Amino acid sequence: MNAPDSRSPHLLGLPEAIQDLNSVCREAGLGLIVCPNPDAPQHEATLGPADQATVRQMTDLLRTSMTRTYDTVAALRSALTAHGVQTPDLAVAAGEIVLGDLTVPDAERLAHVLGAPPRGPEEDPVDELADWPQGNEVVERLDRAFRQATDGFLDLAFHPDCCRCGEKPAVSTGAVPVATARRLLDALEYGDRP
User: Fold this and answer.
1) Backbone dihedral region of 84: left (phi > 0), alpha (psi from -120 to 50 degrees) or beta?
2) pLDDT exceeds 50 at position 1
3) Angstrom distance (rounded) from CA 109 to CA 141
4) Model-level pTM?
5) Could you tell me if 109 and 118 are in contact, meaning their C-beta atoms sit under 8 angstroms apart?
């Protein structure tokens, strides 16, 4: 086994990074050669041709390296479902975790589980939170509760039914790093269940 470059990979120049990747490919048994792009040798690399076996092996290696991320998604799905929060769009995207679109009642439920105070009896019922003021209020409650519970940021946007061509209103969520998703999972373990 070759000793890995002691410098952090993001500090390597492209030629050194290519050399390092070629070395790792050989060590992993991948029949893949990485070369500088002739049109931009200091800025881009190209992957040489890969046969079916190499593609499958690369896929397996990537999936193995992402096991913790996939496990976090599965655990989040289970924990959110246990709290009555449906997340059909929960997925991995670009190495981060996306909760996807939440119904407004699910967004309100998640805010409450994460520590937002219960809505007062004089306020609109959660299942009727479809208008702009109420939907934006839910987004603000979820934003505060998420930040407090995870010490992280979740990009949120309310989409009323008029902007969704007759579909139900939704709260869209952005991606969060896996570490933030793990803190969300920890917070869900201690939140109130329905």
Assistant:
1) left
2) no
3) 10
4) 0.78
5) no
